[in-house]
Amino acid sequence: MGLEEVNRIKNIFTELGLHPTYREHQAVITSEEAARTRGDQLKQGIKALLFTNGDNQWVIVDVPADQKVDQKRVAEVLGWSKGKVRMATPEEVMQKTGCEIGAVPPFGHKEQIQILVDEGVYNNQESAFNIGLRTHSIKILTAEMKIIFQKVKAIEGVFVKN
């Protein structure tokens, strides 16, 4: 649990020739805790949240850490019922991603899961996020994150509440 995800993420960076800065720190759960602990601005964080339509369909939605996901927009883009889309439970998050809440990376999960990326993620020069454990994170140029999101065929759009 977790360490497997850390290693999977590191391998993806290596395969793509990308240059993140790896960081270890005290355990964090919320985006606010993470930014404070890592010394980053909250908006630099990428918050990765797992949603389902209750019909065994799943999606990871990546948004700037200072924003909230617009679930109705997510449902609309995926053709899901707006009344059925919901955030995954902690147990479902562990089952689908192998990570605890607060440690889910924005890509590189053990199962193939569709990824939606809010365009606001690209408004920062650098991005930061946990990579499978609440104690392990990276900081990377956002331009390099765009390469990863393109490789995993993430759908880009506006997925935050106004």
Structure in words:
There is one protein chain. The protein starts with a helix and ends in a 5-residue tail after the last strand. The protein has a single domain, classed as YbaK/aminoacyl-tRNA synthetase-associated domain (YbaK protein, Alpha-Beta Complex), CATH 3.90.960. The protein is α/β, with parallel strands linked by helices and 162 residues long. It is 29% helix and 24% strand. The strands form 2 sheets. A 5-stranded mixed sheet has the order 4-2-3-5-8, with no helix packed on it. It has a 3-stranded antiparallel sheet with strand order 1-7-6.
Features:
3-stranded antiparallel β-sheet; about 25% strand; alpha/beta; 5-stranded mixed β-sheet; 5 helices; YbaK protein; about 160 residues; 8 strands
Model regions low in confidence, pLDDT < 50 over at least 5 residues: none
Q: What gap, in angstroms, lies between the N and C termini?
A: 35 Å
By CATH, the architecture is named Alpha-Beta Complex
The percentage of residues in β strands lies in 15-25%
Largest sheet at a glance?
5 strands, mixed
CATH topology: YbaK protein
Rounded to the nearest angstrom, the radius of gyration is 14 Å
What is the helix/strand order? HEHEEHEHEEEHE
Report the strand count.
Answer: 8
How many DSSP H or I helices? Answer: 5
Bulk shape = globular
Mean pLDDT: 95
With strands numbered from the N-terminus, the spatial order across the biggest sheet is 4-2-3-5-8
CATH class: Alpha Beta
